[in-house]
Design a protein that fits this description.
Layout (H helix, E strand, L loop, with lengths): L1 H11 L10 H7 L6 E3 L20 H13 L4 E9 L2 E3 L10 E9 L1 H5 L5 E8 L1 H6 L12 E3 L7
Parallel strand pairs: 1-2, 4-6
Antiparallel strand pairs: 2-3, 2-5, 4-5
Length: 156
Amino acid sequence: MKDDILAVSKLLKDKSTLTSMDYKEILKRATPKDLIYMDPPYQGVCATGDPRYFSGIDFDEFMQELKKLNGKNIPFILSYDGRTGKKTYGQNLPGELGMYRLEIEAGRSTQATLLGRDDITVESVYLSNNLVGKLRLAPNEIVTNHVVRQPSLFES
């Protein structure tokens, strides 16, 4: 793992910036040459009063910010909702955003484990339409009922 961390560090050196500020301020500074990755608090998880999670962001306000990114042709990746067992967290993103949705099986849910269950977590990852175009994927295609399994750290 050390080698992987050092390799990523070398790859990102002088090519990335770490900041701590309101997400809207960061998005205002973005250009089409940037790739934005966002992993805000999941809907339905952060509003429970659980002290481990930052309180949720306003859904409608966040969707407006995503529309602005699309309008400025700024590519982005968003990890935003998911499901565990039979429970789905969050509302669907508006179709007008033209997002490409992937579902990734992230393994056994920590929260379910704490509650004595063995539910599997499936997370949604969205790619912006302009990023999909750069990757030469079919734009506006929504992947449903297709789950990609995340590899285990200790898998060979």
